[in-house]
Amino acid sequence: MSTTAPAFSDATASDSALRRFLHGLPGVDAVGLEARAASLGTRSIKTTAKAYAIDLAISMIDLTTLEGADTPGKVRALAAKAVNPDPTDRTTPRTAAVCVYPDMVATAAAALAGSGVKVASVATAFPAGRAALDVKLADVRDAVAAGADEIDMVIDRGAFLSGHYLKVYEEILAVKAECARADGTDARLKVIFETGELSTYDNIRRASWLGMLAGADFIKTSTGKVGTNATPANTLLMLEAVRDFREQTGVQIGVKPAGGIRTSKDAIKFLVLVNETAGEDWLDNHWFRFGASSLLNDLLMQRQKLATGRYSGPDYVTVD
Length: 320
Fold this sequence. Notes:
By secondary structure, this protein is of the alpha/beta class. Helices cover 46% and strands 10% of the residues. The protein is built from 13 helices and 8 strands. Helix 11 (232-249) links the parallel strand 6 and strand 7. Helix 4 packs parallel to helix 5 (105-112) and helix 11 (232-249) packs parallel to helix 12 (264-277). The chain starts with 14 loop residues before the first helix and ends in a 12-residue tail after the last helix. The relative contact order is 0.15.
């Protein structure tokens, strides 16, 4: 089953065709990319716009716990925080989703039922992706059956870096097929590149196009489990890719930077990147997410400061 946009069907007809297409993409001007990302990060956001940006960022968070020590109690507590981030202020937006391992999906789904907050699950042998395809697909199948609304898969970076692009493409297609449900409420697929392991901006651009051609609903920077995760530059590059893909196909794809985004100031810089690169259509949690755990606390503290004029400090928010 192919979900490739018709305009690019020839590009995925064979391994050699896919290689020609991906290596035919324009090379990335690294200096220019980093300079633009840095320049956009200096934009001054005033009080009214800052309040709007903080609420928007809260609504875009995939509140995440991906630890070996996760328990049902911790997942239920995280779900409660996602639904009601600030118990002292019921006007605070809910987060977009709670992201957990597949074995915690049922717990999260029960806790979030009727709230509108999505259940996301990492899968495909996250974070390394080192498993046989049938194991990866079983991982996805279990998560979707347990109630996952979204699946965050990792690509096979070894295959990608070895130039086996068709293998990666076909694996994404297979995972996408497992996201389908009989009632038509398919789980949305986020494809994680682990940009810190791809080494070059050219590889990140190629991975972005590969993921979109294979039917990703989102392209995502990182697992949050390596040294280099989301950066303004690699996120800017991915935003350019989804913008260009929609211009050529009419299909809109989401972007999710994950890992290392911890402060309100950081989050607002990323929102400026979205607005100035992809455009306002992406300023919505259906198309842009933050993969984070600690970011929400800082956003809540800054929100309280704007509302009261006082900085409450970390003791006034729950520790995840």
